[in-house]
Amino acid sequence: xxxxxxxxxxxxxxxxxxxxxxxxxxxxxxxxxxxxxxxxxxxxxxxxxxxxxxxxxxxxxxxxxxxxxxxxxxxxxxxxxxxxxxxxxxxxxxxxxxxxxxxxxxxxxxxxxxxxxxxxxxxxxxxxxxxxxxxxxxxxxxxxxxxxxxxxxxxxxxxxxxxxxxxxxxxxxxxxxxxxxxxxxxxxxxxxxxxxxxxxxxxxxxxxxxxxxxxxxxxxxxxxxxxxxxxxxxxxxxxxxx
Amino acid sequence: xxxxxxxxxxxxxxxxxxxxxxxxxxxxxxxxxxxxxxxxxxxxxxxxxxxxxxxxxxxxxxxxxxxxxxxxxxxxxxxxxxxxxxxxxxxxxxxxxxxxxxxxxxxxxxxxxxxxxxxxxxxxxxxxxxxxxxxxxxxxxxxxxxxxxxxxxxxxxxxxxxxxxxxxxxxxxxxxxxxxxxxxxxxxxxxxxxxxxxxxxxxxxxxxxxxxxxxxxxxxxxxxxxxxxxxxxxxxxxxxxxxx
Lengths: 242, 244
What we know:
Chain B: The chain crosses the membrane at residues 38-63, 84-102, 114-133, 207-226. Chain B: It is a multi-pass membrane protein. The structure holds two protein chains of two kinds. By secondary structure, chain A is α/β, with parallel strands linked by helices. Chain A has helices at 42-49, 74-80, 96-108, 112-125, 141-153, 171-186, 198-204, 222-227, 232-241; strands at residues 2-13, 16-27, 31-35, 57-62, 65-66, 81-84, 159-163, 190-194, 207-212, 215-220. In chain A, a hairpin with a 2-residue loop joins strand 4 (57-62) and strand 5 (65-66). Chain B is mostly helical. Helix content of chain B is 79%, strand content 0%.
């Protein structure tokens, strides 16, 4: 059964309709990659899934329950669906550790002492053990992004969304962040990624969706979509980026 | 320019008289300790007003930032408040509150000019401080709010733990300038009673028929405000460097 199912999602900013009826299904443990040109609606779709943007029409089903219903409290949903952003968005006035502890403490009401073992394990898992007391501006882009991932994981989300998380990084730092995603993939995390890393999508995705002008024009297993795209626009996009 | 003043002013026909009544060394020495003593009252009034102003300013800023449609009345109140108290001269607020409220015939200690003078200062300065806080809050990028909310934090926790700590730090220099202005405006309370430094200087002036105590009072203010102003400038420059 689908963990996450989107039907007919529409979202406009003023007169600009960014998502024009998107249908998407994500199964348990699946990794879905969204590809497409800038402005095709990938980021907006992810922000809608996390309820950071209210949608204009359609449904978002999480385990069969519509989470996009107007008037519904978005807080419990956001605890179940984590998101990591392109520009890290760490809180600059807090150390890496404080960034990670804030939400579990305030939202779940857990104590620092109770959290420390698992949080330390997360930092260690992503090679950040010696960076816990550093402030964001003392960390490299790759380290900041890994802390942002740890911060999201500390809320033990069931689904993770990644919004072009390597796009703001220097090329030599992209690898360390992609390794984190590989690790999560091996762990069976359900993930939706907006990405420009075609090689990565081809290697690891279960399903690749090509977004064009606010709709999913074509989707399929990476081997199929990358080698035999059905649509002319998909072909044109792939020939530009591959 | 300065040289011209130094050279030419003593040539003016009234100079000897002015010198005698404004720069009389003997009067200065005699009144300065008393002025310093009276200045302690200025410092005390400042010391208890400043935290109240900080708190009230923060509350008004948060009222003006209320997003929920149901909180619109609060927001409107915040807007009206800042408009009114930024639009009226401090001295008028001090007169209206300081004479008006005790005039209602309240018993001691509720008719104290210290109390109502403080209220007047807090009312006025909180409006300015609120605007400074509001600019600070608005200067924090939307992505910080999105990141906090995406972790499941409530709107109020997002404001308290993520937005406000950054906003307050960012506006420290601007607020320092306001508090320097407050330190000077404390002297306005003398108009409704308290014998603080300006009033004390006036008393000496009448006693000794000499204006030198006012010069002494000015020097005492400068001794406090100049270092504070330099420090605020230093903080501002540091922030600019950090951001560029």
